[in-house]
TrEMBL record:
This is Serine/threonine-protein kinase VRK1. It comes from Caenorhabditis brenneri. InterPro entries: CK1_Ser-Thr_kinase (IPR050235), Kinase-like_dom_sf (IPR011009), Prot_kinase_dom (IPR000719), Ser/Thr_kinase_AS (IPR008271). It is an enzyme of class 2 (transferase). SUPFAM superfamilies: Protein kinase-like (PK-like). Residues 380-389 have a biased composition (Acidic residues). Signal peptide: none annotated. Residues 319-509, 522-548 are annotated as: Disordered. Its main location: cytoplasm. PROSITE patterns: PROTEIN_KINASE_DOM, PROTEIN_KINASE_ST.
Length: 559
């Protein structure tokens, strides 16, 4: 048998937009693209400024046909406009919330390629960066301070009928360098509008999210849920405080991770105490309560965030040493939050944690190889419909603000009575939640739409995403081609935080691609229809998969 030819260059990123390039926004503002500091599957993350101003912001740029940024832009336009957040803060009488707001978004054409951009505030550093600098762990107090911010952010998202679905340190940014009380939740590429959620697992969606953190709902194939976000946060807290998770080594086998999580949850609080030894009772009690609240919440129900905020405040107080540690770690009910504790929590906003210099141990190096995988993004009916409802055309040279398109994104909210009816259903026992649930709800309407869209896309060659993919084995035309996860060498220089290696990954034909679409297969092995469909594109193994649980390669931390 002849030796296999080495794989050709496998994929290209979106064209690199030169620093200094000007974009005229529909709001009549001009934004100047700055240096690139991170790069995703097909997108790039740049600094940017508004013409005539010095304030640096962040601009995410992806080809207009790419999905993740589209998903984010939809979420930002629906729920993360500044005025929406300000109104919420006013209503809730809160000063600050750990969420970014949309500054601008639209399209521009660069070297004949239509690009989508979105501008959000620039933050100082990622929590993952802080965790790494701290030897892979965070103190219990810092972890709880972050949790406090994230619960506030989740509360806003949940009140807006969105689940985030991918809480993790890499998706948490600090407004101020090293100040954990300024933690902001970002990356809405997996965020899911829950209004049409049906408690019906779909194998195609199973394990969606970041494997080691994702919820048991996601493992079984349910769409992201509110309770799932809390469960994900609880797993993260264990990771931050202890530096590990019991299923870390099983990461490459999502079914085994799911099984391990089911056992872990079934064995609470003992299983938690085993992994969080020598932590204050209020800390383990707090995480235990998170699991408890999550497990007792119905799939479609909102989570009791007030209860969580109280236990987190108690845990911060206890971990700060304000209250003597208890000898046992069985506290399930949070202590009443005293005024003093509340003030201490508030004081944490000005607290200046000092990340320790990282000393890399052998065990830590090993841990790096089993870090969370890239979120596996799976299509939802909502995504499909969003794509169809968001026109991607724009006049040459003119930039269209997608907020104009927001009117087309009318949420099909369930009625209050429907929600009340769902709430009044008997609550399943926690163990039931860990099994597979069923429902007979049909998605034929969405299926018809998807089919129509694929038919349309298969004839639309102009919507190709710039990808070059080579067959891994030229001798076998039917063999799956290889897809590289290697970043383009055209990326800006500088130290990369992760290696970017990844080798070849077999491309499986997406299950939902209709025969008509398969005919439209591009010689790369990815059909134009697949490339044009963000949700289909997400299914291509390797396209979005970088090591270290993220598709983004961080070129350098923004200063
Ligand atoms: N507003 C911002 N300010 C500072 N850094 C940012 C900002 N947005 C993103 N980053 C940096 O880029 C990284 C990736 O951002 P983000 O998660 O939003 O992108 P992504 O393309 O969805 O990546 P991934 O799939 O890896 O999560 C962050 O971890 C952070 O280091």
């Amino acid at each position: 048998m002849p030796p296999k030819k080495p794989a050709k260059k496998l994929h290209e990123l979106a064209p690199e937009v030169k620093a200094g390039f000007k974009i005229d926004d529909i709001s009549k503002r001009t934004y100047i693209v700055g240096k690139q500091f991170a790069t995703g599957g097909f997108g790039r993350i740049h600094t940017c400024t508004e013409q005539g101003k010095s304030q640096e912001m962040v601009m995410k740029i992806e080809p207009s046909t790419n999905g993740p940024l589209l998903t984010e832009v939809v979420v930002f336009n629906r729920i993360l406009k500044k005025e929406m957040i300000d109104t919420y803060k006013k209503d809730k009488k809160i000063q600050w919330i750990g969420l970014p707001h949309l500054i601008a978004n639209g399209y521009f054409t660069y070297n004949s390629e239509k690009m989508r951009y979105m501008i959000i505030p620039k933050y100082a550093m990622s929590l993952e960066g802080a965790r790494e600098a701290n030897g892979g762990k965070l103190s219990a107090k810092d972890s709880m301070v972050v949790a406090n911010c994230i619960i506030g952010a989740l509360e806003y998202l949940h009140d807006s009928d969105y689940a985030h679905a991918d809480v993790k340190a890499a998706n948490i940014l600090l407004e101020k360098q090293g100040v954990y009380s300024t933690s902001v939740l970002v990356d809405f590429g997996l965020a899911h509008r829950t209004t049409n959620n049906v408690d019906k697992p779909d194998k195609k969606r199973a394990h969606n999210g970041t494997c080691i953190f994702t919820s048991t709902d996601a493992h079984r194939g349910n769409n992201p849920s509110f309770r799932g976000d809390v469960e994900i946060l609880a797993y993260n807290l264990i990771m931050w405080i202890s530096g590990t998770l019991p299923w870390l080594a099983l990461e490459s086998s999502p079914d085994k991770v799911f099984e391990a999580k089911q056992k872990f949850v079934a064995g609470l609080p003992g299983t938690l105490q085993n992994v969080l030894t020598s932590q204050p009772a209020a800390v383990t009690g707090c995480i235990s309560t998170m699991f408890d609240v999550s497990m007792k919440t119905q799939y479609k129900d909102k989570v009791d965030m007030e209860k969580l905020k109280k236990v987190v405040a108690g845990a911060i107080q206890s971990a700060s040493g304000a209250v003597p540690k208890e000898s046992k770690t069985t506290a399930k009910t949070p202590k009443k939050v005293t005024r003093k504790a509340k003030e201490e929590v508030e004081d944490d906003v000005d607290d200046e944690p000092k990340p320790k210099k990282k000393v890399e141990t052998k065990s830590e190096k090993t841990k790096k190889t089993v870090r969370p995988k890239t979120p596996k993004r799976i299509e939802t009916e909502e995504d499909e419909e969003d794509e169809m409802e968001l026109p991607t055309s724009s006049t040459n040279g003119k930039y269209k603000d997608e907020s104009d398109e927001e009117e087309e994104l009318i949420p099909r909210s369930t009625t209050r009575s429907a929600r009340a009816a769902a709430r009044s259903q008997p609550r399943p026992q926690p163990s039931i939640r860990l099994g597979v649930t069923t429902s007979t709800a049909s998605s034929s309407r969405a299926a018809r739409k998807i089919e129509q869209k694929y038919k349309r896309l298969s004839t639309n060659k102009s919507s190709l995403v710039p990808v070059s993919i080579a067959d891994s084995d030229d001798d076998d035309d039917d063999a799956p081609p290889a897809v590289s996860t290697e970043p383009s060498t055209s990326s800006a220089g500088g130290t990369k935080r992760s290696s970017g290696g990844g080798g070849e990954i077999a491309l499986k034909t997406p299950a939902l691609v209709a025969p008509a679409i398969k005919k439209a297969k591009y010689k790369s092995g990815i059909s134009s229809a697949t490339k044009a469909s963000p949700t289909e594109l997400r299914r291509v193994p390797g396209v979005r998969n970088f090591p270290k649980g993220r598709r983004t390669m961080l070129i350098k931390e923004v200063k």
